[in-house]
Every structure is written in C-alpha cells, then in structure tokens.
Amino acid sequence: MIFPGCPPRPLHFRSIQVKKQNVLLRSFQTSLPVMAGYVVLGMGFGMVLRVKGFGLPWAFAMSLFIYAGSMQFVLANLLAGGASLLATAATTLLVNARHLFYGISMIDRYRESGKAKPYLIFALTDETYSLLSTDPRLIPTDPADRNRFYFLVSAMNHAYWILGSVLGSVLGGILPFDSTGIDFSLTALFITIVVDQWQHKSGRLPAVLGFAISIACLAVFGPDRFLIPAMLLILAAVYGIRGREMA
Amino acid sequence: MINPIHAILTVAVSAAVTILLRFLPFLVFRGHRKTPAVVSYFGKVLPYATMAMLVVFCLKDLNLLPFPHGLPELISCGVVVLLHAWRHNTLLSMILGTACYMILIQSVFV
After folding, report:
1. Range of the domain at B67
2. Which of residues 23-82 of B touch A (CB under 8 A)?
C-alpha cells in the first residue's frame, strides 16, 4: 500500500535510527503532491490580486499570514469591493469553519510536537491536514523525527504557496500554456486520500456519512451555506456511531 | 484604489479569524493532561468524514443542469478513483486526473 508521495517501499523509514537527511527527503516526498497545485493555484491568486489592484507586497503578506487558499481568493473580491470588517470576519468564519475539524483531529497527533507546535497549528491547511492526518504509517516513529517531519511538511507547503503567489503577482498573466482547470489537482489529491482511507474498513462508515451528509446539506443549503450545517451533522453522526470497533 | 488602511485591516481581520479557527480546538483542550476520550475518538474517526466533506467542498459549485452537466468533473473524479484504486500512486492519479480534466474543459466540453 502506498501513501501520498511515498516511494513503493518506504521500509527504511521504520528502522530505529533514521538519518536526518531521510526525514528531510521523506518530508519533501510527502509534500510533493501539494507542490504543483499550490504553486499554480498560488500563481492564480497572485494574478487575480494584481488585477484587483493589489500588487506583490499584498500577495506575499496574505499568503504568509492568512495562508488559506480559497479564503484568499474570496478576500481578493472583498478587498476590491471595500467590504466592511464585520462582513470580512463573517465571510472568513463561513469559508474557514472547516478548519475546526482539522484542529480537533490533530489534538492528539500534535500533543507532543514541541516548539514548532504554534506554527504547525497555524499552517494546518486543507492540504497539510490531508497529508498529515491520514495514515500513521507515513509518520516517523521517533518523536524528534516525527516533529521535524510535521514541521518540514507544513513549512514546505507554506513555501510553495508563497512562492506561487509571488510568481503570479510578478509575472501577471504570462503563462506558457493554458492552465485552466489545473486547480483540479488538489481535488484529485483529496480523492486519492479518500481512496487510500477506504482500505481501512473501520473508516468506511464515517466516510460514507461524510459524503451523504455533505451532499444532502449542499442540496438543501446551497454552496455558500452548507458547510456549517454539514459539520454539525457530521459531528452528531460520528458521535452516534461511537462504540463500534475502530481500528 | 481603496483606502490602504482599511485594506490592511481587512487582511488582518481575515488572518485573525483564520488563526482563531485553527487554534480554537487546541486552546479548548489545552489544560487537559490527557485528551478526553471523546476528543481522541473524534481525532481517530473524523479524518475519514472530513476528507469526504472536503471533496464535496471542492465540487460544491458543480451545476448538473446546464451543459456540460458536471461531466468533466464527474468523469475526471472517476478516473482518479479508478486509477488510484488500481495503481495506488498518488502523483500518477493526480497528474492523469488533472490532465483529463484540463483536456475535457479546454477541448471536449467547450
């Protein structure tokens, strides 16, 4: 079984003494699926922001300090339209509420994560979460290596996103090919993780509940309002199935 | 060009709300020496439901009624699922799935 970015046989990683380069290399391999999507999507963001009248310092600062892809695209519109601070706060809350789930999922995993913990929490995007929350076999067993791994994957993803934003802002509309639709790569990444997770039989019911509830809420509440009702119902449903054997 | 002070505050507010959302679960359970059992349970089970929710979130603006009826997305998702169930290679599934999607929306369903 192969996990995101891993070579076919990552057995050396389970050995007791893992060299430092191996953690670096493994972190890079793990972050690889996010690289292309973040750089290209970041470029898209930098370009959109430039068109709205906000140049390089804005793109850089937003990608450094907000670091939330879909919210930054929304914010480009809010900025250009001169939205009120209250509207900005409410919109951010709606778009990013899903991050609460990432935090809840990572409390135990990040419990002993040391000095870098605040940064790990800050940098917990959809993509970083999807890489780090899934399979424990991906994660180094040694605590120091594990913390380096968490930090390096988070920081590499952050760097790709900032790099893309800066490039997009500097280059403007210049791209050597028609990149329409390349944002699908991140959707594809999430789908591969769902397929990987499907091999854990105990996770199938929560996955089915997640799909069914999200699709039902999308149909009822529409694309801009479905996330919070879906999250509440998922919490209730997952709580309701506790007591089943969870591997 | 809008007032730069207001723009800076707008970015700051959005950053602050995002950071708050990311830190809130950790702040709530900061004091506990051991995570409460129910939270550990959510930590174990929620990732499965959350990834499903995230896929739906990515496809939320899909409209099945007008042409092309969401076909580029649905076909490409199917390609990723089948390819990944078969080969289990994340990069391969992503690259071919994305290429499929780009070809479909740029050349086939235009």
Report:
1. 59-110
2. 23-26, 29, 35, 38-61, 72-73, 76-77, 80-81
Q: Look at chain B and report how many structural domains it folds into.
A: 2
* CB contact at 8 A, B62 and B73: yes
CB pairs below 8 Å between A and B: how many?
263
Say whether residue B14 is in contact with chain A using an 8 A CB cutoff.
Answer: yes
- For residue A218, give how far its alpha carbon lies from the nearest alpha carbon of chain B (Å): 7
Per-residue pLDDT of chain A (247 residues; tens, 9 = 90+): 334 444 444 444 444 445 566 889 999 998 998 998 888 888 888 888 888 889 999 999 999 999 998 889 889 888 988 889 998 998 898 888 889 989 998 998 898 888 999 999 999 998 899 889 876 777 888 888 999 999 999 999 999 999 999 999 998 766 666 777 877 888 888 898 899 889 888 889 999 999 999 999 999 999 888 888 998 999 999 999 987 755 4
Q: Using an 8 Å Cβ cutoff, are A99 and B17 in contact?
A: no
Amino acid letter, A47: M
Instruction: Report the pLDDT value the prediction gives residue A154, as an integer from 0 to 100.
Output: 96
What is the DSSP code string of A45-77? HHHHHHHTT--HHHHHHHHHHT--HHHHHHHHH
Answer yes or no: do B41 and B65 share one domain. Answer: no
Asked if residue B69 and residue B41 are part of one domain, the reply reads no
Yes or no, beta carbons of B53 and A234 under 8 Å apart = yes
- Do you find a cis peptide bond into B68, omega within 30 degrees of 0? yes
Nearest-CB residue to B89 (from A2, A82, A208):
A2
Break chain A into its structural domains and give their ranges.
22-181, 200-247
Q: Which of A5, A68, A180 sits opposite B105 (nearest CB)?
A: A180
| Whether residue B108 sits in one domain with residue B72 | yes
Question: Residues near A23 by Cβ (< 8 Å), separated by ≥ 6?
Answer: A140, A145, A148, A149, A152
What is the C-alpha to C-alpha distance for residues A210 and A87, in angstroms, rounded to an integer?
29
Average pLDDT value over all residues in chain B:
89
Q: What is the pTM of this model?
A: 0.81
In a domain, B52, yes or no: no
